[in-house]
Structures are given as C-alpha cells and as structure tokens.
C-alpha cells in the first residue's frame, strides 16, 4: 500500500516551510518525502547546454531588449519544464506514493497513477489584471501552454484567494469544481501572551512590511506620509524589508529582520499599511491582522478577501497617494476605530487564516481522491497557542524578505 507523500517545492521561504508543516500535521499517518525542484535542476548538469539553446530560442530577443532577466528566463524554458516533468517518474511511484503535493505552479511535477495537488497564490496571466505589470514581461506562448498542463494534470488546485480561482477559470478554462480556495496562514510567530504595545492605538505609528519597495507601493506611501505629517506632525513610519534611500522626517528604515523581530514591530504599531501595486497574495496583511492591527491596503489581488471595508480596515485605489493620505490621517485621528478594526481583523484571521485551518481544508479535499483513505484520526485542529508555538520554533532563525 502507498504510504508516502511527496512534497514538491522549488524555493526557500518561510511560507514554503509553513505549507510543509500544515501538510505534515494534516496527514500524520503517512511518511513524508521532500523533493526540491532546484536540486533536481542543479544535479542534472546534462540539461544545462540544451537549456541554453532553448533560452536563446524562446527569450533571446527579449533578453537583448532587457525585457526579461537571464536567471528568471533560464528556469522558464519549455525544455526545462518537460525535463522536470519526465524526471519525476524516477522519483514518484504509484506503489509507494499516496499523493504528490506541489507548492506553486511553475512546473508540472505530476506522475500518472498518483493523485497530484497544486497549491498556488498566482497564475502567470493574473499579472494582466495589474496596471503595474508590463505586458512585455509575459512569458512566451509555448510556456503558457505548458502552464495550462500544470492545472490540467492536477486532481485538485488549491488557491490562497478567490481572485486566483477566478483567473484559473477565466484564463485557463478550469472547471470551478476542480478548484478549492483554502486561503493561507501567517509565518510570523506570535507569543501566547501577546499584547499590543501601541498606547491603545494612539501612538500614531504606521508600519510597512515588504521587500520590493517599488512593486509594493513604497514610493506612494512615502508621498502620502509627507501629507500625513502636515496634519499629524507626531506620526511615525517604520519600513521593514525594503531598504530605500529616503529623506523623510519621522521615518525609520530597518531593512530585513528576523520573523521574531518583526513581531515586536507589529505590536508597537497602530496601523499597518501596504499600498501594493502587484501582489500574488500579501501574507504580511494577514500577519498584521493576527497581531490585531487595522490594515490599509489597495483594492487589488487577494486584498478584498482579507480586508472587510470599514470593518477590519480600508482599501484605497492603487497609486493614489492623496486617497491614501486621507485614509491614514483619518485613522490616526481615531484610535478607538483602529482598536475596533484590529480586533475584528484578528477574529477574521484566526478563523480563516491559520495553517491548522488550511491543513484541515487540504485533508478534507485530498481524502476524496485517495484510493483507501486511512482510518487514522489526525490532529486536524490544533489549539491556536500550540500552533503558534510550533510555527514560532521553526521560524525564529530565518530572515524575513
């Protein structure tokens, strides 16, 4: 009888480790095998020379115009896609593996005879919904056809938000019943005795968390904060992740921090702001909500899933620094509203956006496809404090970014 799960990923990030944790906890009756796509590429050196040929063939013109980068394009060739798909047959066997679970949708790692599941926060064609995205950066049609195979060969596609579910139906002709929106959890550890430390939301501290300053709307926030200071000269902006060169009063740029260090900055802030212009998901939003912070973000991507307008925070039009400044200024004038939004956001996040809850949704869907589901009773819904402690132990050391 098959008794092993193949967990397949191609990047290192706290979210990837959180997903692994959720799958392990949801299926404790099975063995677990990690499969790294990047290691497969690295170990198959015979792929390098042919892949350079396909790199030039598929991306040469756009590389010359600097519309795409060499590193990103090297891993997005049709040749490498097909090679990785074929190589999985030597790793996954129907007699051993009960199912395969793939993080993100950059490759097709399905194997015939083994139920295959994909968990993703994006599709490539989702980029077309963002004004920030340059259409010249679209991958070639040959790659887009292969991306469709990723979804076609999956038994179930798990998404983090409803906008990606809609894009799979609209752009890739997937049937709605093939997709399950299971949401996601946060990665920042929260102490069981956590309390806000923000003078009951009156200290006028605004927190931004994001590594890509331009894409996540950093310049718009900086312009808005200059306007905020005219009304609230004692307001303060803290920037974590990115390291922009700014000449902005009352602004602290911290750059990359550990996840544990980041939790303290959530606690010491009154408002979380992420005026992002392009966002596959926005995990920092739900992490702020789990820290009882009101949220101000844009109307794009997964934000309408996470933010209830006028209940947990506010959404503004992307790129509108005037509207952003008015919204932030209004909230800084009303600490009680910030407190109320923070509590409502926490209630929503703890019921929907925790990894034990996501793991329970994985299991409920995956069991429908297994040949003989185990009778073992897993620990589906762990206590919130225990889950936070477990995730916290895993993520005290990695650096955020």
Describe the structure.
The chain is built from 15 helices and twelve strands. With 401 residues, it is an alpha/beta fold. The chain has two domains: 4-185 and 354-394, 3-Layer(aba) Sandwich (Rossmann fold), CATH 3.40.50; 205-352, Rossmann fold. The strands form two sheets. It has a six-stranded parallel β-sheet, with helices on both faces. It has a six-stranded parallel β-sheet with strand order 9-8-7-10-11-12, sandwiched between helices. Helix content is 41%, strand content 15%.
Identify the notable features of this structure and list them briefly:
Rossmann fold; 15% strand; single chain; 41% helix; disordered C terminus; 2 domains; six-stranded parallel β-sheet; 401 residues; alpha/beta; 15 helices
Number of domains: 2
Broad shape: globular
The CATH C-level name of the largest domain is Alpha Beta
Q: How helical, in percent, are the residues?
A: 40-55%
> What is the C-alpha radius of gyration, as a whole number of Å?
22 Å
The name CATH uses for the topology of the largest domain is Rossmann fold
Helix-strand topology string:
EHEHHHHEEHEHEEHEEHEHEHEHHHH
Binned strand content: 5-15%
Examine the secondary-structure arrangement and name the CATH architecture of the largest domain.
Answer: 3-Layer(aba) Sandwich
Per DSSP E runs of 2 or more residues, the count of β-strands stands at 12
Question: Kindly, what is the distance between the CA atoms of the first and last residues, rounded to a whole number of angstroms?
Answer: 41 Å
**Structural class based on helices, strands and sheet pairing:** alpha/beta
Average pLDDT reading: 92
Sequence of strands across the biggest β-sheet: 2-1-3-4-5-6
Tell me the number of helical segments per DSSP (H or I, 4 or more residues long): 15
The description of the largest β-sheet is: 6 strands, parallel
Contiguous low-pLDDT stretches (5 residues minimum) are 373-401
